[in-house]
Automatic annotation (TrEMBL):
Protein name: Cyclodeaminase/cyclohydrolase family protein
Annotated ranges, domain Cyclodeaminase/cyclohydrolase: 6-183
SUPFAM superfamilies: Methenyltetrahydrofolate cyclohydrolase-like
GO molecular function: catalytic activity
Organism, as annotated: Atopococcus tabaci
Gene3D superfamilies in alphabetical order: Formiminotetrahydrofolate cyclodeaminase monomer, up-and-down helical bundle
Length: 212
């Protein structure tokens, strides 16, 4: 994503533009990942973590890949809607045409949901990094950035989940629909549980100025 912030916001607010919640969730996920990266960068320079430098650098590399993927999905999400949009425009004046249209719509639903599911998967991976940083017990104002990253990630989780769920609920094949919905619910539950636990610890530190 190389567009200016104003351009992105204008596109998001334009009813004629297909960019929506998925793109916004990917952007917020990238912001959360950037804040986690900042905390890692701060901690790796601390003398008390000299024995963890290799591990921290490895995790920073993993985090950078997550952030890059979020950035890719900002643009990929609206593009994934195009096959579905075109499918709805297909003719349905004959039985064969209706069947062809239905098949294309069902395939388009899967394509449209995929970026939102990937956002959920990336956020779940990000939550592992956030948990690790809580265990490192950073000190000072940098902990505020960790708290902010958790709040951003939680919001992105909810937004991406709504998008994926809305798409999958339109699948006509019950078994496939239930399978896809169960997967998104599992990602949401696991990820948000991790975030809630980490945020509880971070909030307590910010209140007491020490880790419990």
């Amino acid at each position: 994503m190389n567009i200016q912030t104003n351009d992105f916001l204008n596109a998001l607010g334009d009813s004629k533009n297909v960019a929506g919640g998925g793109s916004a969730a990917a952007l917020v996920g990238a912001v959360a990942a950037s804040l986690v990266r900042k905390v890692y960068d701060n901690e790796k320079n601390k003398n008390r973590h000299t024995d963890k430098i290799d591990e921290i650098n490895k995790r920073i590399h993993s985090l950078e890949e997550i952030q890059e993927r979020f950035q890719y999905l900002i643009d990929a999400d609206p593009k994934a809607l195009e096959p579905l949009i075109q499918a709805y425009k297909m003719p349905q004046d004959t039985t064969e045409a209706k069947e062809a249209r239905h098949a294309k719509i069902q395939a388009g639903i899967e394509t449209a949901a995929r970026p939102q599911v990937e956002i959920l998967e990336l956020l779940t991976d990000l939550a592992i990094h956030q948990e690790y940083l809580v265990k490192m017990q950073p000190k000072g104002e940098i902990v505020t950035n960790l708290a902010e990253s958790l709040l951003f990630a939680d919001s992105a989780f909810k937004v991406a989940h709504i998008g994926a769920r809305t798409n999958y609920e339109a699948l006509s094949e019950e078994e496939k629909r239930e399978d896809r919905l169960e997967h998104t619910e599992t990602l949401l539950t696991i990820g948000r549980d991790r975030i809630a636990s980490a945020y509880e610890s971070v909030s307590k530190f910010l209140e007491d100025k020490e880790w419990s």
